[in-house]
Known about the structure:
The chain is of the alpha/beta class and 322 residues long. The protein has helices at residues 2-20, 37-47, 70-78, 94-100, 163-180, 185-209, 226-232, 250-263, 276-283, 306-319; strands at 32-34, 54-55, 81-84, 105-108, 218-222, 239-241, 267-270, 289-292.
Amino acid sequence: MIQSGAEELLRSLLAVALASVVLPAWAEPPRVVTDIAAVHSLVSRVMEGVGEPELLIPAGASPHFYALKPSDARKLRDAQIVIKIGPQLSPWMDRPLTSLAQGAQRLRLLEQPGTITLAARTGATFEPHEHHGDHHPGTGEEDHDHDHDHGHAAIDPHAWLDPENGKIWLPLIAKALSDLDPEHAADYSANATAGAAEIDWAMADTRAALASVQDLRFIVFHDAYQYFEHRFGLNAAGAIALSDASPPGPARIAELRERVEALDVTCALTEPQFDLDLVRTVFDSHDIKTAVVDPAGSALPLGPDMYPELIRSVGAALTSCN
């Protein structure tokens, strides 16, 4: 009985001692805010198994023109890093970032070394374009945004639609997160490598799907697809709206009508949020096919799989116009 009582006392003392030990806490994942769904997907892939980023601009909203809600302001105030395309896509973000996310680091993807960039197309119609290997060099500054007026208008901001850019950005995102959270650096690096392989598969699938439409004559509602066209060897005949989605004027519509007639354009890519009546106005009495395509991927579930599926979905829309 004495031995049993001693053992019981020892167990009780051990339990008290264990309870008093302060175990090392696992590092919390960084608090990350992203601008658009495509960037959210890339960051989600890098953070998979560690944490999840916050999305600022809902997939169905235009990144060119968006009014922040109170819940968005809270996200920015809490952020440790904001990862976004850049002021070329959403110039309105500069002011709230300066006022609400003063302490947050910023990763502007369009300004990163190696990023493939193309000049914005401004005319209603454009001849088949060549890629000039333009690269917008990184500034190396992650603590503030440049003013939107300093040359940003010359760059087409829809660079996420070149999947090679997605592959370029994954390790850069991993590096930025690792700097904030070294404990998970190996996870971020491995996830970025796996994500790049998944983008390669999406590119292969898309290239195969588009083999039958390489000569397709089409116009787009919103000039957002230049990067996709270049990557997959396609050439749009024109765009109804500018790359910032500004509504077209009568002269632009008249120019497009002439182009449609001259090239025998047979397809129009529309987007869910835009007015189909404008497409009908451009094509007038011409018999055409339309395909709904969404460069923002608003119909796709958010998360790490969204970005490769976005690339596949744009290819599928074009294929359906054949």
